[in-house]
From TrEMBL, chain A:
<dbReference type="InterPro" id="IPR036250">
    <property type="entry name" value="AcylCo_DH-like_C"/>
</dbReference>
<dbReference type="InterPro" id="IPR013786">
    <property type="entry name" value="AcylCoA_DH/ox_N"/>
</dbReference>
<keyword id="KW-0274">FAD</keyword>
<protein>
    <recommendedName>
        <fullName>Pimeloyl-CoA dehydrogenase small subunit</fullName>
    </recommendedName>
</protein>
<dbReference type="InterPro" id="IPR009075">
    <property type="entry name" value="AcylCo_DH/oxidase_C"/>
</dbReference>
<dbReference type="Pfam" id="PF02771">
    <property type="entry name" value="Acyl-CoA_dh_N"/>
</dbReference>
<dbReference type="Pfam" id="PF02770">
    <property type="entry name" value="Acyl-CoA_dh_M"/>
</dbReference>
<dbReference type="Pfam" id="PF00441">
    <property type="entry name" value="Acyl-CoA_dh_1"/>
</dbReference>
<feature type="domain" description="Acyl-CoA dehydrogenase/oxidase C-terminal">
    <location>
        <begin position="239"/>
        <end position="369"/>
    </location>
</feature>
<dbReference type="InterPro" id="IPR046373">
    <property type="entry name" value="Acyl-CoA_Oxase/DH_mid-dom_sf"/>
</dbReference>
<keyword id="KW-0285">Flavoprotein</keyword>
<feature type="domain" description="Acyl-CoA oxidase/dehydrogenase middle">
    <location>
        <begin position="123"/>
        <end position="214"/>
    </location>
</feature>
<comment type="similarity">
    <text>Belongs to the acyl-CoA dehydrogenase family.</text>
</comment>
<dbReference type="InterPro" id="IPR009100">
    <property type="entry name" value="AcylCoA_DH/oxidase_NM_dom_sf"/>
</dbReference>
<dbReference type="InterPro" id="IPR006091">
    <property type="entry name" value="Acyl-CoA_Oxase/DH_mid-dom"/>
</dbReference>
<keyword id="KW-0560">Oxidoreductase</keyword>
<feature type="domain" description="Acyl-CoA dehydrogenase/oxidase N-terminal">
    <location>
        <begin position="6"/>
        <end position="118"/>
    </location>
</feature>
Length: 377, 398
């Protein structure tokens, strides 16, 4: 057992940290958020140039063969700046799915561009009534000759507004909530039969609703057998989100602590009041808890698929969801009115922290998943 | 001991229900139920209807246009109004400055301001908090310097709710900078049209414009606009704060929000069933419903004590804490009920006249925004930490 980072990992951490610090001051973030893309395409390009988008991929796919730890280090820094770029969605998730399921030709065609950041991809797994259950798929795909066409609606596709390719889960067999019969397709968002309703998200990003009406799709992997890969890769996404949450929590704690030391009421800095001191201690205690579980998730993310891996990732997301929401709420309360304003960065950290629990399962979802595997004991 | 209303009280409740059924405009009730923003005109329309019936200012003495209602009747009226989707009254005129004018104002002030509140001529806002004076309100710095027949006011107020609609503001200002904190403060009524006043919107984290900053730059205020004695304004402020706190538990509003939550949970799906049938989610709704039940009983006990002539004391602080936490939990559950669809930020769908396609349904655009907006409840009206300080000092004598 060893919790130390290697020299290379420390360098990676410093690279990501410096990049975020240089580009992502709060005013710039607001501009990126309000731009049409919803994030900084220049920053995205820089991430590509620095090799950050290539980190998790095997060398033969144009990557650096990084593990969950490297991903954690990057995501944590993105969280510190509440960065808006769809790194998790494109690199971890879309890249992971294509690397796992794609044919040699598909990998050849796509992986190099994903690894370099040339191609920003998105993944459409949620649906109107799926409520985090990735096996709850009503979108259908039909085969005619060698062509597949997709019909249905996918929801809250983060990064879908700018994506060059979108990976879509659709049903080619089985019943609505069966794991069997789910397939994964690559679609071109500008193709016939595809329409998007783009909207902002509460945490300042952009996403879209994806409407498919006999839209052409390219099958990724074997028909009807994509669910295992979706579950496996969503586990990697969970680990990435946990790390992002830790970064955002750390920044939120820093801001709050600074405020406690500088804001004066009743003639003293409010940090002199014991009730607020204890609240601040609760915040960093939650941060510690979340850091531990994000680290656990990072260490397991790239392990072989197993029930134990799934259970521990569920535990990590459960703990991090609760911790992130708690830190968000405490930070607003400790700041008072100022944290209720759009102008204050702390409010945007709080929004991202709460919204992380709405991606890949909230606390109820993961509590249920974790409980379910206790039945055998 | 009997928790049931008396026959007279039941008859009164029926009268209130009948009035609400007949008179509450359906479009306004619909907006309240869907948590859409109410326009100034909506508020004014409802206010006029209440005024016509003589029920706009039930807490005022009859000679000024109030009623003879006791605390229980007032409670019944508030409960029924919330249940039918009547808008919450904007309190700054009718329930905040008016009680102060009635208690501390002179006859001329009563004759000038009260009728204008009653008939809707004036929209009041509150000038209390300042950037440096939040929980520590008595540290406020806005200065009023006497100059002949006028005060010259300079300073800044903040968190002024709906100040963008107001034509009058009541302010706490410092008239004696030498005196100890609470002593040198006065209570001034200021016409918002006076030169030197600037209103700047504050956009809250949910993208809403509800609160404002107000700047005073050499604003000339006639001395007759002083309520009570100079430097004794803190007495008015304290009187008003206890008035404010009793209404802050928001039981009626929480009940309405709870039924909204159930509606959302019956429309949202999980595992192929309505979310409200999900054991885990349902138990969380049950838990908050039971807490609300307890808070409602506590309110009734306080109301009953008040009707016997008791004065609500620090109990109202306990209720403020409980009531605001309940409301926050309800909005937390609303947001959770939406699953991934809590992410879309759809302010356009919350607008009054939105007629485009709804992303999910008429219930889904606002829960996440409401959740963030409701964080204010434990901050304003004396933060919950301040309320607990009051309880530990006044009840526990610690």
């Amino acid at each position: 057992m060893d919790f130390k980072l290697t020299e290379e990992q420390q360098m990676l951490q410093e690279t990501a940290e410096r990049l975020v610090r240089d580009v992502y001051d709060f005013e710039s973030r607001s501009k990126f958020s309000e731009s049409e893309a919803g994030f900084s395409t220049a920053f995205w390009q820089q991430m590509g140039e620095l090799g950050l988008t290539a980190i998790p991929f095997a060398e033969e796919l144009g990557g650096f063969g990084g593990s969950g730890i490297e991903t954690m280090l990057i995501m944590e820094q993105l969280g510190r700046g509440i960065c808006l770029e769809p790194y998790m969605e494109s690199v971890i998730l879309a890249g992971g799915l294509i690397a796992q399921l794609g044919s040699d030709a598909q990998k050849e065609a796509l992986m190099g561009d994903i690894a370099s950041g040339q191609l920003q991809a998105a993944v459409a797994l949620d649906e109107l009534n799926s409520h985090y259950d990735l096996a709850n798929v009503t979108t259908t795909a039909k085969q005619q000759g060698s062509d597949w066409t997709l019909t249905g609606r996918k929801g809250v596709v983060i990064g879908g507004q700018t994506a060059g390719k979108i990976l879509v889960s659709a049903r080619t067999g089985g019943d609505t909530r069966d794991e069997q019969g789910i397939s994964l397709f690559l679609i071109d968002p500008t193709a016939a039969g595809v329409s998007r309703r783009v909207y902002a998200t509460v945490d300042g990003r952009k996403a879209c609703e994806l409407f498919l009406d006999n839209a052409k799709g390219e099958l990724l992997g074997e028909a009807g057998k994509a669910f295992d890969a979706i579950r496996y890769q969503s586990g990697r996404a969970i680990a990435a989100l946990c790390a992002e949450a830790v970064g955002a929590m750390r920044s939120s704690c820093d801001l709050t602590l600074e405020y406690l030391k500088t804001r004066k009421q009743f003639g003293v800095p409010i940090g002199k009041f014991q009730v607020l001191q204890h609240r601040m201690v609760d915040m960093i205690s939650e941060l510690e808890r979340a850091t531990s579980m994000a680290t656990l998730a990072a260490c397991l993310a790239d392990d072989e698929d197993s029930a134990e891996r799934s259970a521990k990732l569920a535990a990590a997301k459960f703990v991090v969801n609760r911790a992130a929401t708690s830190v968000a709420e405490q930070s607003i309360q400790l700041h008072g009115g100022i944290a209720m304003t759009w102008e204050y960065s702390g409010a945007h950290y709080a929004k991202r922290l709460v919204m992380i629990s709405h991606q890949f399962g909230d606390d109820d979802y993961h509590l249920e998943a974790y409980s379910a595997q206790l039945t055998g004991a | 001991m009997d928790i049931h209303y008396s026959p007279e009280q039941l008859a009164f409740r029926d009268e209130v229900r009948e009035f609400l059924k007949q008179e509450l405009p359906a479009d306004i009730a619909q907006k309240v139920k869907l948590v859409k923003e109410l326009s100034k005109q909506d508020h004014e329309r409802w206010q006029k209807i209440l005024s016509k019936r003589g029920w706009y200012a039930p807490g005022w003495p009859v000679e000024h246009g109030g009623t003879t209602w006791g605390p229980i009747e007032k409670h019944i009226f508030d409960e029924e109004s919330a249940a039918y989707g009547a808008p919450r009254l904007v309190p700054f005129g009718v329930n905040m400055v008016a009680p102060v004018i009635i208690k501390f104002g002179n006859e001329e002030q009563k004759a000038t301001y009260l009728p204008r509140i009653l008939d809707g001529t004036d929209w009041w806002c509150q000038g209390y908090s300042e950037p440096g004076a939040g929980s520590d309100l008595a540290s406020l710095k806005t200065r009023a310097v006497r100059d002949g027949d006028h005060y010259i006011v300079n300073g800044q107020k903040t968190w002024t709710t709906l100040g963008q609609h107001a034509n009058w503001i009541f302010c706490l200002v410092r008239t004696d900078p030498e005196a100890q904190q609470q002593r040198g403060i006065s209570f001034l009524l200021i016409d918002m049209a006076t030169p030197g006043i600037t209103v700047r919107p504050i956009i809250t984290l949910d993208g809403d414009h509800e609160v404002n900053e107000i700047f005073f730059d050499d604003v000339k205020v006639p001395v007759e606009n002083l309520v009570g004695e100079e430097n004794k304004g803190w007495t008015c402020a304290k009187y008003l704060l206890t008035h404010e706190r009793t209404g802050l538990a928001g039981i009626g509003a929480s009940k309405a929000a709870l039924s909204n939550l159930k509606r959302i949970a019956s429309k949202q799906q999980k595992n192929g069933k309505p979310l409200i049938q999900d054991a885990m989610f349902r138990s969380q709704i049950a838990e908050i419903e039971m807490s609300l039940m307890a808070a409602e009983m506590s309110t009734l006990r306080i109301v009953a004590a008040a009707s016997e002539g008791g004065v609500p004391g620090a109990e109202s602080s306990i209720l403020k804490v409980q009531g605001t936490e309940i409301r926050q939990t309800i909005t937390h559950l609303m947001r959770k009920a939406l699953g991934p669809y809590a992410l879309p930020f759809l302010p356009e769908e919350m607008e009054l006249d939105y007629d485009g396609e709804l992303l999910v349904g008429d219930y889904a655009a606002s829960p996440a925004s409401q959740y963030f907006n409701m964080r204010k409840l434990s901050i304003f009206g004396g933060s919950n930490e301040i309320q607990k300080n009051i309880v530990s000092k006044m009840i526990l004598e610690l």
